[in-house]
């Protein structure tokens, strides 16, 4: 038996089959599918894009030298008092609204008490019993189907600092992140496996980036996720005991960590064991999860209302103002691009990957009406030269340049091949395509009078071929078309050349 592990799988009444598991199962979901259903709930921490921290004026800039951006408030010096950042509240509310949550007029900050070196205050200011947003949902696309994933709550809280280990044999603490504003988004246990979890994470990131409250940079820690994973026998309603996987910071790891944990739990259950509720860590190097600590319960944190902050009161007007600032979200955009503009779903998907691409596409359509051609050009030529980072997008050309280029092709002034040459010349410059066409003498190509002149000259130079054509051998037309192309270095409009030559050769004009 490969890997020495075998499990019996009962396949609905048929005689049990023996399945072989590899030592490191690549697709454990399929292997356990007949026995267990995987249940996943995600807690995602998203950093809000404010310039200053949640309760003080220190900068939130990423990458500064350690402990540069700190103040008495975020390091918890005695006597310092927190003041809530209005910008953070605005962003949090916009996120809650975009996730279809109910926003509460009153919410409460609370102290979550625990000791860790990266938390000098000894407590984190969070929201506990009264979060500002609850009961939302987000739709995700899984294969051909749309699944609605519940969002139990969204609350505001501050980030902790960071422990840096192995520096000259010491561990040091960087508090630049301490007090950075976060929202924690808690999903319902509605996800049915690692694929769905990764898709949910992607959909969540897209919504937050489109709303402009998060930059989507998982690698810089601005979006981190904890996954609660449990298994239950297929058909059972009651949830199994869950384990929490901590601090997953990439889409790939979301999938791998959950797969590894599902395989571990299945093996424990198959061997007749029980799952202990605990907090575990995923090690990308070994592809395994391991115990961090036995699971703490909420009461371990001795939550109590934060005495230094009044309840957060949000007026109906404030909430309405935030609602007005929510743009069309990627799901709605994709639907509209497919249904109203007739774009293929894959193209609509590419265009709605990032708000900067959507803005580029929409701006192009203001000057040029063929959505299909614009989308194709943007998805290939334009995206090749684009740099997308965080909420910003940099393009090597402008929408106006692209719109004019496509119009020149439509009018037959340049061919598709020439368009690529023009594009290469305008990239990274302010030059308009029409100016390049002019400067390169490409415009001759649809100039009917000029083409007519070339055709006449050719006919005069080749009287024998003209005679052959007039005797009925119409394939000689190809010879003349070829000659015109040669003289114009391929820039002549072939359709127009054909028309002119047919007319001239059949003697209708001369
Ligand atoms: Mn949290």
Question: What topology emerges from the helices and strands here?
Answer:
Blueprint lengths: L4 E5 L7 E5 L6 H5 L3 E12 L38 H13 L3 E2 L2 E2 L1 E5 L9 E5 L5 E10 L2 E14 L3 E6 L2 E5 L6 E7 L6 H18 L11 E11 L9 E6 L2 H20 L7 E6 L4 E7 L9 E2 L6 E2 L2 H9 L5 H10 L5 H7 L3 H13 L3 H14 L2 E3 L2 E3 L4 H12 L5 H11 L6 H7 L8 H14 L1 H8 L6 H11 L6 H12 L5
Parallel strand pairs: 14-15
Antiparallel strand pairs: 1-2, 3-12, 3-13, 4-8, 5-18, 6-7, 6-17, 8-9, 9-12, 10-11, 13-14, 15-16, 19-20
Helix pairs in contact: 2-5, 3-4, 6-7, 7-9, 8-9, 8-10, 10-11, 13-15, 13-16, 15-16
The protein binds manganese (II) ion (MN).
Short note summarizing the structure:
The protein is α+β, with helices and mostly antiparallel strands and 510 residues long. The protein has helices at 28-32, 86-98, 194-211, 251-270, 316-324, 330-339, 345-351, 355-367, 371-384, 399-410, 416-426, 433-439, 448-461, 463-470, 477-487, 494-505; strands spanning 5-9, 17-21, 36-47, 102-103, 106-107, 109-113, 123-127, 133-142, 145-158, 162-167, 170-174, 181-187, 223-233, 243-248, 278-283, 288-294, 304-305, 312-313, 387-389, 392-394.
């Amino acid at each position: 038996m490969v890997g020495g592990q075998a499990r019996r799988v009962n396949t609905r009444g048929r005689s049990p089959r023996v399945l072989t598991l590899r030592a490191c199962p690549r697709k454990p979901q399929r292997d356990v599918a007949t026995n267990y259903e995987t249940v996943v709930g995600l807690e995602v921490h998203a950093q809000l894009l404010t310039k200053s921290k949640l309760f003080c004026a220190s900068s939130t800039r990423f990458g500064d030298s350690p402990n540069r951006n700190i103040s008495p408030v975020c390091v918890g010096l005695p006597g310092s008092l927190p003041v809530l950042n209005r910008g953070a509240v605005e962003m949090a509310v916009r996120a809650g609204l975009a996730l279809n949550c109910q926003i509460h007029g009153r919410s409460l900050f609370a102290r979550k008490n625990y000791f860790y070196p990266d938390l000098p205050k000894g407590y984190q200011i969070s929201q506990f019993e009264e979060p500002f947003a609850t009961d939302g949902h987000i739709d995700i696309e899984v294969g051909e189907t749309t699944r609605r994933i519940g969002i139990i709550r969204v609350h505001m809280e501050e980030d902790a600092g960071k422990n840096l280990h192995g520096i000259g044999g010491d561990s040091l603490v960087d508090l630049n992140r301490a007090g950075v504003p976060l929202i924690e988004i808690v999903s319902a246990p509605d996800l049915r496996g690692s694929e769905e979890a990764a898709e949910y994470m992607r959909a969540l990131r897209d919504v937050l980036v489109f709303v402009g409250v998060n930059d989507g940079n998982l690698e810089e820690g601005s979006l981190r996720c904890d996954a609660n994973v449990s298994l239950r026998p297929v058909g059972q309603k009651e949830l199994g005991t869950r384990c929490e996987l901590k601090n997953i910071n990439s889409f790939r790891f979301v999938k791998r960590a959950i797969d590894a944990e599902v395989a571990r739990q299945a093996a424990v259950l198959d061997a007749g064991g029980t799952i202990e509720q605990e907090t575990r860590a995923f090690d990308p190097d070994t592809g395994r999860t391991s115990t961090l600590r036995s699971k703490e319960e909420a009461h371990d944190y001795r939550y109590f209302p934060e005495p230094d902050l009044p309840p957060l009161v949000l007026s109906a007007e404030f909430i309405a103002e935030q609602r007005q600032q929510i743009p069309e979200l990627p799901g709605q955009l994709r639907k509209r691009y497919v249904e109203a503009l007739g774009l293929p779903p894959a193209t609509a998907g590419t265009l709605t990957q990032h708000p900067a691409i959507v803005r580029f596409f929409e701006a192009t359509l203001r000057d040029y009406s063929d959505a299909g051609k614009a989308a194709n050009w943007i998805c290939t030529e334009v995206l090749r030269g684009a740099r997308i980072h965080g909420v910003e997008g940099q393009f090597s050309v402008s929408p106006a340049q692209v719109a004019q280029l496509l119009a020149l092709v439509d009018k037959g002034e340049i061919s598709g091949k020439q368009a690529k040459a023009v594009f290469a010349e305008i990239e990274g410059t302010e030059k308009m395509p029409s100016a390049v066409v002019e400067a390169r003498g490409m415009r001759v190509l649809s100039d009917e009078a000029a083409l007519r002149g070339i055709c006449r000259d050719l006919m005069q130079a080749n009287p024998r071929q003209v005679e052959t054509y007039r005797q009925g051998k119409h394939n000689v037309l190809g010879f003349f078309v070829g000659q015109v192309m040669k003289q114009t270095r391929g820039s002549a409009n072939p359709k127009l050349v054909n028309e002119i030559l047919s007319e001239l050769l059949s003697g209708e004009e001369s």
